Predict the structure.
Amino acid sequence: MITITEEDFNSGVLIDKARDRQVGGIVTFTGIVRDDGITAIDLEAYREAALQELGAIRDEALSRYDIRSVDIIHRIGTLAVGDHIVLIVVGSPHRKDAFRACEYIIDRIKETVPIWKKEYTADGSRWVPGEHS
């Protein structure tokens, strides 16, 4: 599953989906809005391009690592401190490939997916330069 949504997600559902008889390990990454002086963030996406790029990243990970499944959910919209931003679930026969693939996926998302972040603070707001989310 590759999804961009304004809705929150339940990571347990995707973790259960990644289980099969060939999977010996499931690695997840959940990005969360942290309190580093902000009150909220807005995430915007060029949805069609972002979905295409997320699919390409999934396909790259599947070809680079010995993994069986990749699911990615990325949220957009206004999020508060503590809200989920992104979920990556990787199922693999072996833990090392699952960890490596998960790290590769989040790094590629931040490098290439057209999702932008605006931070709000008590002093105003600003678009975050550099990495996409």
